[in-house]
Write a structure and sequence with these properties.
The protein has 561 residues and is α+β, with helices and mostly antiparallel strands. The chain has 22 helices and 17 strands. Strand 9 and strand 10 form a beta hairpin.
Length: 561
């Protein structure tokens, strides 16, 4: 280690976090350095793909240092863009990709985009799917067709259309214990990864609802049922939980409530044209907040906007890291002296990867990095030996939890193990105001069930699927809001596979017009104020002390007037 690193390692954790974050902030490449025209004939950098690419490549190491990628799908990007073209120019680029004009005309409305595989490969230091497509398949062009919702790159090879899906890592790993035959079958049917919840629903729920859900499950669609009263809802959910415990005890039911069921764009025409290897089934849109509104897409129009976006996400992560402390645990195997405390002591560090998962959260994917420190005094005598176990996956979930539930958009999808909490979120809308969020009950009518409040049921298996019950990591912490909401995080999504969470959706419970929730949780119970919630209080204090308007204000309820 360098002298600076040695000095920093001896600092208290809070001060170390502050200095580390300050160093990270200072290392961000300033957009102004790339926006200055180099010659009078240069186009503005915000409209020049080559200079935008140069800036994004310079920003990549800083983004990667944030450590917020999905532990199970590390190739899917988080904050980094898949191409360097200005967003407004992308629809015009479709015509240059070699597809018939009547087909290319449908790309924008279907939610497709483009990807530069050489650019994305350059974001990573090692070998990735992107670099292999460039080196082995020769996909070195700056633009290929991309479905950013399902992680699929599409290209033409001779007279054929080829596909590669980036988002299969977790799905293929699930079959490792099932034998070569299952692995081979999955490798030849990759799009079945998109309907894992449907297959669980067919097993668990079709015997209950029979002909009411069979046509949907047979068509590989998520089935739906309608309830008219809270008592029916409670009885239904309780019955499904008991049945699941009997038939598939390893499966957990998790819930998410939404005022309406947002739908993915219709891709049927592109599927029939062979451009997409799926699309005949229209899925629910469960795109995380990071890829909507003020997220990545709303921040790449100019380099200055993108710099501000990355900086503000980094600031949120810094504040979250101070809540939970360092992302490691230490085991001491030597004398009870403080590491490195002896005069003239030196440390020899050995790094290893064990694959062990943290005991406090065994369902969290974690590489199991460990560093063993052998400390000797000036004469070379052993002073101390200790091991640091770095819980990268756990830390990623913990920080993502703070961001997700207190105001900063993330790639995680919030779910709950409490169906009544999900029901509350289905029946209420929250509107942001300068003084805080205002809650009001939903109103709905009509026969379009997708516009009715909906409670979604996900079928998840601990250790196999990328999710976490926050109760395993929040006990003893002041983060009261997610504990009250009994929240979990559903991971896997990234900037090139945004609708990842929809693959685990097994059933939709539609709330019919006239459905009224007469009791259950209240907004004040689910969103306790800073006088109760220590994390909220800390985040509000940090926001007030920041000295600049936050791109992502802390979410709090507006005080009653």
């Amino acid at each position: 280690m360098s002298g600076v690193d040695d000095a920093m390692a001896s600092l208290p954790s809070d001060l170390l976090e502050l200095l580390t974050h300050s160093r990270w902030r200072a290392a961000l490449p300033p957009a102004t350095s790339y926006a200055v025209a180099r010659t009078p004939l240069d186009a503005p950098a915000d409209h020049d793909p080559a200079r935008r690419a140069e800036y994004f490549r310079a920003m990549a190491p800083r983004v990667n240092e944030l450590g917020i990628h999905s532990p199970d799908e590390p190739d899917l990007l988080t904050l980094l863009p898949p191409h360097a073209d200005p967003p407004e120019r992308v629809p015009a680029l479709f015509a240059s990709l070699g597809y018939p004009s009547e087909v290319a005309a449908r790309f924008a409305s279907a939610g497709l985009s483009v990807i530069s595989l050489p650019l994305v490969a350059g974001y990573f230091a090692g070998e990735t799917q992107y670099s292999l497509l460039v080196s082995r398949r020769g996909l070195a062009s700056e633009r290929y067709l991309l479905d950013p919702n399902y992680g699929v790159v599409i290209w033409r090879e001779g007279g054929d259309i080829r596909h590669h899906c980036f988002a299969l890592g977790a799905w293929l790993r699930e079959t490792e214990g099932l034998g070569a035959a299952h692995m081979e079958a999955r490798a030849h049917e990759p799009m079945r990864s998109l309907v894992q919840g449907v297959e669980f629903g067919r097993l668990l729920f079709q015997p209950v609802f029979g002909a009411q859900v069979k046509p949907a499950y047979d068509a590989l669609e998520v089935a739906e049922v309608v309830v008219e009263r809270p008592s029916t809802f409670a009885m239904l959910v309780d019955g499904l939980r008991r049945l699941t415990g009997q038939v598939a005890p390893k499966v957990q039911l998790w819930f998410r409530g939404q005022p309406q069921d947002y739908q993915m764009p219709d891709r049927g025409e592109l599927a029939r044209a062979g451009v997409l290897p799926y699309g005949d089934v229209r899925q629910s849109s469960l795109v995380p907040a990071l890829y909507r509104g003020r997220g990545v897409d709303g921040s790449v129009g100019t380099l200055a906007d993108y710099e501000r976006f990355v900086r503000h996400v980094g600031d949120w992560l810094f504040r979250a890291s101070t809540v939970f402390g360092p992302a490691h645990t230490t085991r001491r195997a030597g004398p009870a002296a403080a590491p490195g405390s002896a005069p003239g002591a030196t440390a020899t560090v050995t790094l290893s990867v064990t694959g062990r998962r943290p005991a406090v959260a065994p369902t969290v994917p974690d590489p199991g990095w460990e560093s063993q420190w052998d400390v000797r005094d000036a004469e070379g005598r052993p002073v101390d030996r200790f091991t640091k176990a770095w819980h990268v996956g756990l830390s990623s979930y913990q920080r993502g939890l703070v961001l997700q539930h207190y105001g900063c958009p993330t790639a995680w999808l919030d779910i709950t193990r409490d169906p009544m909490t999900a029901l509350w979120f289905a029946l209420h809308e929250m509107t942001e105001t300068p003084e805080g969020h205002v809650v009001k009950p939903c109103t709905w009518e009509g026969s379009d069930r997708a516009r009715w409040p909906t409670v979604m049921i996900f079928t998840l298996v601990p250790g196999a699927h990328t999710f976490l019950d926050t109760g395993t990591i929040l006990q003893g912490t002041p983060a009261l809001r997610p504990q009250r909401q009994q929240c979990g995080l559903l991971g896997g999504a990234g900037n090139v596979a945004r609708n990842y969470g929809a693959r685990y959706l097994a059933l939709k419970i539609r709330l019919a017009p006239g459905f009224a929730m007469n009791d259950g949780p209240t907004a004040e119970k689910l969103f306790p104020g800073p006088e109760e919630d220590g994390v909220l209080a800390r985040l509000l204090d940090a926001e007030a002390a920041a000295g600049e308007e936050s791109l992502f204000p802390v979410v709090r309820l507006r005080a009653p007037r």
